Amino acid sequence: MKIATYNVNGINGRLNVLLRWLKEESPDIVCLQELKAPQDRFPLKAINDAGYNAVWHGQKSWNGVAVLSKFEIAEVTRQLPGDKEDSHSRYLEVIINQILICCLYLPNGNPYPGPKFEYKMAWIKRLMKRSKALIKMEVPAILIGDFNIIPTEQDVYKPEKYIEDALFSIEVRKAFKQLIGQGWLDSIRTLFKDQQVYTFWDYFRNAYGRNAGLRLDHVLLSPIVAPLLLEGGIDRQVRGWEKASDHAPVWIILKDKK
């Protein structure tokens, strides 16, 4: 089973790119972030015609997450527990093939420091509480999406440039390390131990051409799912397509377990 995450950076404006990638790579499950579309503007017909069911949580102008699947989808929640007043469309939990898929779009947090960074840290705290509960309940689960976190110096082309950036602050790196410490497996780093692999390249200063990238998109596996990991990768070439997102799709393959 092939599971992917892709920050599309506007699903309607980049629908042709998404559909081309779905046709060429044929993932079984896809988590999308930054739909930048209200609930009623999700291109459901095009997604269905491509062979996918869909559950989505839209929001006008920004945010928005969705899960596409060739299999049946059962929605669990579209709200990260811990703040009933949080109106951002950043989280979606579904069950597919007896695995809990937690699709997330974690806040950027810039400028750092400031209110947006405080919101980011509060959001991470809520996520860690939820993820800890899933580990304790021994749920087969995947935390997947755009975390807006650069975990280590290995995950950024010039670490010194991001010291005072909310993506790479000491606080968020420490939080990510604590998250992994709960028992989650960072699948891409596990598969590419000593390699510099990126999932995001800015639109400015020819970042993609220079490979001046960041690793922001992650697929974390719970202890029950982790042993099923076979392979994974980053479809870097998609970032080079015309009118593509500044992120590239990230994917893993899990072996079937009856």
UniProtKB/TrEMBL annotation:
Keyword Hydrolase: yes
Domain Endonuclease/exonuclease/phosphatase as annotated: residue spans: 4-247
Organism: Sphingobacterium ginsenosidimutans
Keyword Hydrolase: yes
Cofactor: Mg(2+); Mn(2+)
Protein name per UniProt: Exodeoxyribonuclease III
CDD domains listed in its UniProt record: ExoIII-like_AP-endo (cd09086)
InterPro entries tied to this protein: AP_endonuc_1 (IPR004808), AP_endonuclease_F1_BS (IPR020847), AP_endonuclease_F1_CS (IPR020848), Endo/exonu/phosph_ase_sf (IPR036691), Endo/exonuclease/phosphatase (IPR005135), ExoIII-like (IPR037493)
Keywords, in A-Z order: Hydrolase, Magnesium, Metal-binding
Assigned protein family: Belongs to the DNA repair enzymes AP/ExoA family.
